[in-house]
Structure formats: C-alpha cells, structure tokens
Amino acid sequence: MSYYDNDGCQLHYEVYGQGAPVLLVHGLGSSTRDWEYQIPELAAHYRVIAIDIRGHGRSDKPRESYSIAAFAQDVRALIEHLGLDRVHLVGISMGGMIGFQLGVDHPELLKSLCIVNSGPEVKAKNPFEYLEIAKRWGLSRLFSLETIAKALGNLLFPKPEQAELRRKIEERWPENDKRAYLASLDAIIGWGVRERLARITCPTLVIAADHDYTPVAQKEAYVKEMSNARLLVIEDSRHATPLDQPQRFNSSLLAFLEEVEQARVC
Predict the structure, then answer these.
(1) Which residues pair with 12 in a beta bridge?
(2) Percent of the chain beyond pLDDT 70?
(3) Local mean pLDDT, 10-residue blocks, the chain (266 residues)
(4) Is 50:39 a contact under the CB 8 Å cutoff?
(5) Domain segments of the chain: what residues?
(6) d(CA 218, CA 134)
(7) What is the pLDDT of residue 140?
C-alpha cells in the first residue's frame, strides 16, 4: 500500500510485477478493485500500477469540486512520482475520460492508450440525452448508495450465474463517500475533449461492450477521428467488461500491449 501527494491531496496506489509500466485507472464510484481479474495476469508481464482517483478508495476525499482535468493531473503526478517516462494507460468509463484528458494535455506521457466503455465527451446532443443525464443526476442525489448499488448490480450483471459480481457491487458501492461520489459525477457531466483528439497519436485500443450504456456506433464515430486508433467489440458484455468478460478482455489487452512493445523494439 503506497501513497503520494498532489495538490494537497494524499492519493493511494498499488504496484505489482516488473517490466514496462501499465497504469490502470478505474471508473466512477470504484477503486483499484475494478482490476482484480486483470492485475495477476498483467503483472506476469508488466509493471502494473493501479491508482485510486481522488474521492475514491483509499485516496483522500477533499470537500471541493472535482474535474476530469484535475483527475488527469493526479495521474500525471503519479507518473512523475514514480520517475516513469511513458506508460501504457488503461481506463474504464470515467477512467477512460481521464485517459483522454491526459492524452490531449500530455501526449508525451503515453506509450499507448486503452479506452474501455468510455468516450471523449459527455455532452447531451438531443432532448433524449438531456433527459437521461438529468435523470441520472437527480436519482444519484435522491437515492442512497445502497439503493443505487442494488440497481447497478442488477443492471451490470443480470444473469443468474453473475450473483457473485452483483454481491461485490452491493457491498462495495455503499463504501463510497456520497459527497465525493456526487462531486465526481458532476465532473463528468458536460466534460469533453473531442475537439482535441488529434493530439493523441499513440496506439489506441478502444474496447466497447456490445451492451454498454452507449451504442457501439458512438465509439466507431470517435475512433474514426483518431489517427492511430482501432475498435474492438466484446460480445455478451455490459459496462463492466473487465469483470463480466475477463478472459476475453485480458487476452485482447495483452495482445495489444505486446504489439505496441514489439513495434517499439523494431
């Protein structure tokens, strides 16, 4: 268990294995535990670094407004704290947004980028999207974290055989600090860096679940705007792909990382 400080905030991170650095960035309301099915396999080949973003997990939860840009600066500070040159960054959901933000602000820090069930903006484009965002904002304030956890567990893991994954969500989600959770949700809504995607030139793998919250077509659209990106769709998966399809996810990520590393050697 290790910590570092950035901008007056103590942040928790974990390190496993040896080799080229792979930095894992979790999603909203989660923690390093997002990656429990990835860390052992990745650490057999790479130096794996998992961070708790401020407001989450074992990191401090300052009583202030949050932003995706500030989260990205926390990640940048960790890279500097560890004395790393460039990293392979893997981010899911909000973690993917942080990856995009770091990529446009500090592209020199990335060897590669893997974006999982995320996108470069959260901006409503039509009345339906405005309604969906407003509904999520309102319900998150109206209901307790326990109620949200139960609904989320059923949404992410609806199959009978996924009972253990539902149990984990129902146990872990209420451990969040509600104020920090809402501040992080507020940081997401209205955020975007899509107009700056051209700054990201490192190899990028976008992984999209076929049953994610947002359709595959949205990922296809922004991948076309990037100079060195490709899209991989994982079937029979929802928003938490590393948890509901760990074998397919791990093999795909490892193949991508090996390809990037081999290209650097050649």
Answers:
(1) 3
(2) 99
(3) 94 98 98 96 98 98 97 98 98 98 98 98 85 86 95 96 97 97 96 97 98 96 97 98 98 98 79
(4) yes
(5) 2-121+194-265
(6) 20
(7) 93
Show the CA angle centred on residue 76, arms to residues 213 and 78, nearest 5°: 105
Which residues in 67-77 are b (16+ Cβ under 10 Å) and which e?
Answer: bbebbbbbbbb
pLDDT for res 124: 83
DSSP three-state, residue 184 = helix
Question: For the chain, what is the radius of gyration of the CA atoms?
Answer: 17
Would you tell me which CATH number, out of the four given (3.40.50.1820, 3.30.70.1560, 3.40.50.10320, 1.10.510.10), belongs to the domain 2-121+194-265? 3.40.50.1820
DSSP for residue 200: -
Dist CA 183 CA 72 (whole Å): 15
Burial of 133 (0-12, 13-18, 19+ CB in 10 A): middle
Residue 204 Cα distances to 4, 116, 175, 215, 237, angstroms = 28, 11, 33, 19, 21
For the record, the structure tokens of 142 come out as 């109206």
Q: Which residues contact 251 (CB under 8 A, 6 or more apart)?
A: none
Q: Tell me if 53 sits within 8 A of 71, measured CB to CB.
A: yes
Helix pair 94-105, 178-188: axis angle to 10 deg: 50
Q: What is the pLDDT of residue 266?
A: 58
Asked if 113 and 89 touch (Cβ cutoff 8 Å), the reply is yes
